[in-house]
Amino acid sequence: MRHVYLAATGQNRGKTTVSLGVLDGFQKRGLSTGFIKPVGQRTIIEDGVPADEDAVLMRSVFGLTEKLERMSPVHIPRGFTRQYIEGRVVDDLGARIREAHATFSERDMLLIEGTGHAGVGAVIGLSNAVVAAMLGAPAIIVSEGGVGRPIDEIVLNAALFERHGVRVGGAIVNKVDLDARPDLAAVLERGLARAGIPLLGVLPYRPILSNPTLAMVLEAVNGETINAGPDLDQVVGSVAIGAMEPAHMLERVGPQTLVIVPGDREDVLLAITTAHLMGPASGGATALGGNGPSEPPTRLGSALGLVLTGGYRPRQPVLDAIRRADLFATLVAEDTYAVASEVHDLLVKTHPSDAGKIEEIKSLLWEHLAIDRVLEVAAEAPA
Question: What CATH number is given to the structural domain containing 232?
Answer without folding.
Answer: 3.40.1390.20
